[in-house]
Write a structure and sequence with these properties.
Length: 456
C-alpha cells in the first residue's frame, strides 16, 4: 500500500494519455483524482471502460468512485476496445476514461480521456492535470450525500460499435467472397469485438489469442518479432489474410496470405489509395509518414497534410480542415471521419478484408507500392527533455529542410530523418528513409551517434 502514496505532480499526459507502471506511476490514488477532476469539469456523465490488464478493474473502480463523488453519473462499459469507449462518449455526449496502456507490457497501465466521440483536447487534459495537481480550484469535500452521481451499465456498447463498423464496409461483397481470416488480439481488448465483427461481415474467422486475459500470450506491440508465430499460422491455415491488434484495439496490423506483414508504410499507403478511390481529398498523416505514403496519395490526386505524432492530432486536423477524407499513422492507427473522429482498429481490419475481397491477394497489392529503405530504432533515456535539447542542438547543424513541430525532422533531396521523444515510453526514437540503402544506413548512423551521445 505504501507504494500507492506517490506524489502526483508534474506533467501527467503524454501523446496518448497517462501511462506508467502500475503501483508507482499509475495508482488507484491517481485514478481517483482523475475521476474526481472529470466529475468536476462541468459534465453530468462519465463513461468508464478498460482493457484486460490485471490492474484494470481496480483503476476503473477508483476512477468511477472519484467521478461519482464529484456528483457525475458514471456509465460502466467494462472490458472494451478504446474505439468502443470513444463511440460511447459520442452516444452519451459526455466525457469518458479508458483504462489502458495499449501496447505496453502488462505491468503498465494508464488513462486515456475521450470527449464526445474523440480523444480529449490538450486544454481538457490540462484542466484535469491542474485539478489533480491542486493548481486549480476543486471544491472539497465531495458532493453532498444526496447529490452523489448514479452508476449504470451500458451493455450494448460492443454491439453498437460493431454496427457502426459494419455500416462502413460492403458486407455483401465480403459475404460473397467468404474470406478466411485469422485474428490475433493478443488477449487484449480487441478479443471481445474484432472476431465477432468479422464473422458478422461474412468472414470465416479463426481466433488466435482471442480469450480476454491479463496473462498475455504475446507481447502486445504487433510488430514482426511479436507476430512471428502468428505469421506461421496464417500461412499454415491457408488464410486469405491475418489481422493483429494491440492491447486496446485501436491499431490493426495486416498480414497477407503468405503470412508476411504488409509493412506499416505500405499498409498505410494502400489504405490511402483505397479511401481516395472513393472520394478525392486530403489525407492527414504524421511526421513519420514515408515517401511511399506521399507518392500513393499524390498518385491518386490527393493532398497530404502533416501533423505531429498521435491519432488525436490526426483527428483534430481532419475536424478542423476542409476536404480531409482519411487520416492515418504508420503504426496501424487509422481515422475514418465518416465513422468517427478516432482511431478504430476494428473498422481498419474490416476495411482490409473488404480490400482483399474487392481487389484480390494482398501480396499482389503490396507489390504495387513502391517502398524505399527505412530504418527505425529507439534508445532508452532518463530525461527526455534534456536529451532532446542536446540532440536538437546537434541536428540543427546538419543541412536539409528542418521541422521542429514534433522532435526534429530533416528533409533532404532523396531522404529524410526524424528524431523525437516517445510520448508514452522513456525512449528517444529515430526514423530515417532514403531512396538508396547505403544512404539510409549512413544517415541512420549519424543520427544514432548523436542520440547515443545525448542519452548517456
Amino acid at each position: 500500500m505504501a507504494h500507492w502514496a506517490v506524489a502526483i505532480v508534474g506533467k501527467l499526459f503524454g501523446t496518448s494519455g497517462i501511462r506508467g507502471v502500475f503501483g508507482t506511476e499509475v495508482t488507484p490514488e491517481l485514478a481517483l483524482k482523475v475521476g474526481y477532476a472529470l466529475g468536476r469539469s462541468g459534465v453530468k456523465k462519465v463513461v468508464v471502460g478498460r482493457d484486460t490488464r490485471a490492474s484494470g478493474l481496480v483503476l476503473q473502480k477508483a476512477l468511477a468512485s472519484g467521478a461519482l463523488a464529484a456528483g457525475a453519473d458514471v456509465v460502466n462499459v467494462g472490458i472494451v476496445s478504446t474505439p468502443t469507449l470513444g463511440y460511447a462518449t459520442r452516444k452519451f455526449d459526455c466525457l469518458g476514461a479508458m483504462i489502458t496502456a495499449s501496447h505496453n507490457p502488462p505491468e503498465y497501465n494508464g488513462i486515456k480521456i475521450f470527449e464526445k466521440g474523440t480523444e480529449a483536447c490538450v486544454m481538457r487534459e490540462r484542466d484535469v492535470e491542474e485539478k489533480v495537481n491542486g493548481k486549480a480550484k476543486m471544491k472539497a469535500p465531495a458532493a453532498e450525500w444526496n447529490a452523489i452521481g448514479a452508476s449504470s451499465n451500458y451493455d450494448s456498447a460492443i454491439r453498437d460499435h460493431i454496427e457502426i463498423a459494419l455500416e462502413h464496409v460492403d458486407c455483401a461483397c465480403i459475404a460473397r467472397k467468404r474470406p478466411k481470416v485469422l485474428v490475433d488480439a493478443g488477449n487484449g481488448a480487441a478479443s471481445v469485438i474484432s472476431p465477432y465483427a468479422l464473422r458478422e461481415a461474412g468472414c470465416r474467422v479463426i481466433g488466435v489469442n482471442c480469450e480476454p486475459s491479463p496473462m498475455f500470450s504475446r507481447r502486445l506491440e504487433p510488430n514482426a518479432e511479436n507476430l512471428a508465430d502468428f505469421s506461421k499460422l496464417v500461412r499454415a491455415c491457408g488464410a486469405d489474410l491475418g489481422i493483429a491488434h494491440d492491447g486496446d484495439g485501436d491499431r490493426a496490423i495486416v498480414l497477407d496470405e503468405k503470412g508476411q506483414m504488409l509493412g506499416l508504410d505500405a499498409q498505410l499507403a494502400l489504405m490511402c489509395e483505397s479511401e481516395l478511390e472513393v472520394k478525392h481529398g486530403t489525407v492527414v498523416t504524421t511526421v513519420e509518414a514515408s515517401l511511399a505514403v506521399r507518392e500513393a496519395v499524390e498518385r491518386h490526386g490527393g493532398k497530404v497534410s502533416i501533423v505531429p505524432v498521435g491519432s488525436r492530432e490526426v483527428a483534430e486536423r481532419i475536424e478542423r480542415g476542409k476536404g480531409a477524407v482519411f487520416g492515418g499513422e504508420p503504426c496501424g492507427e487509422y481515422v475514418y471521419p465518416k465513422a468517427g473522429m478516432l482511431a478504430d482498429g476494428v473498422l481498419a481490419g474490416l476495411k482490409f478484408v473488404h480490400m482483399f475481397c474487392e481487389k484480390g491477394k494482398l501480396s499482389a497489392l503490396r507489390a504495387t507500392v513502391k517502398t524505399y529503405p527505412i530504418m527505425r530504432g529507439k534508445y532508452a533515456v532518463k530525461d527526455k527533455e534534456r536529451a532532446m535539447a542536446k540532440i536538437k542542438g546537434a541536428l540543427m547543424k546538419m543541412g536539409g529542410k528542418k521541422n521542429t513541430e514534433d522532435g526534429v525532422r530533416i528533409d533532404f533531396s532523396d531522404s529524410w530523418l526524424l528524431v523525437r521523444p516517445s510520448g508514452t515510453e522513456p525512449f528517444i526514437r529515430i526514423t530515417c528513409e532514403a531512396r538508396e540503402e547505403k544512404a539510409c544506413r549512413e544517415l541512420y548512423s549519424k543520427a544514432e551517434a548523436i542520440v547515443k551521445n545525448s542519452v548517456r
